[in-house]
């Protein structure tokens, strides 16, 4: 399917690996020019070169912390008028809410709620003026089915979801859509970290926990990041202008609800 976005420009955050990288690669395969960011320069540049080699599209790597004002300004300087924005940031650590202090909550909200909102604020008016924009926020399946040990993430990402629900109804008349992708268990470093914590808590080996979690999913496996990237690219397609304010859960059918 031709998505009609070749030659568009995109910012993809936290794109050096995992789901962010998969989204960047999927967009590049559609001919989208990229500005990607992450904190570690070496890994980020390796990813940029890999995408260039596989797709031939221009890729600019901006090594920075996107959760800071300076980081956001650096990325926006490299791509001041993006057609596509993919918001993404590493999730806060798991734990017990009794152990989290005020600063822990502020850090979670800054990374997983306020940073996406600030980036949306910076680009949405230009998108509306040009009558094209696609904003995709990578959140979490925990927005629909909260995970007790991920309380920081549950709270911050749900706040972003509520904000987007209102804004997306205002921008769609200008062909600017805002949607959220809610990943379940995908084969990423983040999943490994979460499962390591579970293994320690339950007194099991990491391999035992991985197998238990894999088999407990209706699909009998974890997700492939490429599947996630393809879903992101579809939401950014020229044909997707009637999809806005939605939360697309990609979890292998793990969520047990009807709606």
Structure characterization notes:
Helices cover 47% and strands 14% of the residues. It has 259 residues and is α/β, with parallel strands linked by helices. Strands 3-2-1-4-5-6-7 form a 7-stranded parallel β-sheet, sandwiched between helices. Helix 1 (18-29) packs parallel to helix 2, helix 1 packs across helix 8 and helix 4 runs parallel beside helix 5 (151-171). It is globular. The mean pLDDT is 95.
Any chance you could write out the topology, listing elements then pairs?
Layout: E1 9-12, H1 18-29, E2 33-38, H2 41-55, E3 59-63, H3 69-78, E4 84-87, H4 102-130, E5 133-138, H5 151-171, E6 176-183, H6 189-202, H7 206-216, H8 225-235, E7 247-250
Parallel strand pairs: 1-2, 1-4, 2-3, 4-5, 5-6, 6-7
Helix pairs in contact: 1-2, 1-8, 4-5, 6-7
User: How is the biggest beta sheet arranged?
Assistant: 7 strands, parallel
* Main sheet: strand order: 3-2-1-4-5-6-7
Count of individual helical segments: 8
Beta-strand fraction estimate: 5-15%
Specify the helix fraction band: 40-55%
Mean pLDDT: 95
Number of strands: 7
Which of globular, elongated, flat, extended, rod-shaped describes the shape? globular
Gyration radius from CA atoms, angstroms: 18 Å
SSE class: alpha/beta
Distance between the termini: 28 Å
Low-confidence stretches: none
Order of helices and strands: EHEHEHEHEHEHHHE
The gist of it:
The chain is an alpha/beta fold.
What are the defining features of this structure?
single chain; 259 residues; alpha/beta; 8 helices; 14% strand; globular
